[in-house]
Amino acid sequence: TAADCRKLYFKLKDKVFVGLIRPYESEPLEKFLQNALGEDTRMGDIKAPRIMVTATVADRFPPDLQLFRNYESPNEVLGFVNRVEPVADMPKPQEQLIWKTARSSGAAPTYFRPCGAFLDGGLISNNPTLDTLSEIHALNKALKVANRENEELHLDLVVSLGTGAIPIKTVQVIDIARPDSFM
């Protein structure tokens, strides 16, 4: 429930965001996530609802978006191989530990150290709702091509939790023109 999530968050902040020095220690966060989500629970253990979590693959240039899922990706439905070299020690998305998925997605620079090759998903996916809608569209198209229309997704609800908005302030326009007296 929402009340349970709220209680969990307040426990998290008291155990994880300790002290003034950042980045914060990763171990308390990892222990908290393991206790809350289970040490051995995998993404594929959750059958419903379908879940997608974003992370940034930061061990390459340019960085890439990683979608942790508990379902087949559109490429898997079509039998395609991912164009990006997979991260060496990463299991298939359905086999990924849930606590590690959460840790990878929340590895915000200046707050926590990277989780292996992963950083905060918001570095690449700063509008995860759009990425989710794009994923649903691509998955439905793939299911149609694979003659699996009965598995198509029909969106019931989107929950998008943000951290607020920065108040707008008037600032001076930056003028990059070279001054005439410079020559």
TrEMBL record:
SUPFAM superfamilies named among the record's database cross-references: FabD/lysophospholipase-like
Keywords in alphabetical order: ANK repeat, Hydrolase, Lipid metabolism, Repeat
GO CC terms: mitochondrion
Signal peptide: none
Pfam families from the UniProt entry: Patatin
Any one GO MF annotation of this record: long-chain fatty acyl-CoA hydrolase activity
PNPLA domain mapped to chain residues: 1-133
Keyword Ribosomal protein listed: no
InterPro entries for this protein: Acyl_Trfase/lysoPLipase, PLPL9, PNPLA_dom
GO terms of biological process kind: lipid metabolic process; positive regulation of ceramide biosynthetic process
Motif DGA/G in this chain: 120-122
Record carries keyword Nucleus: no
Protein name per Swiss-Prot or TrEMBL: PNPLA domain-containing protein
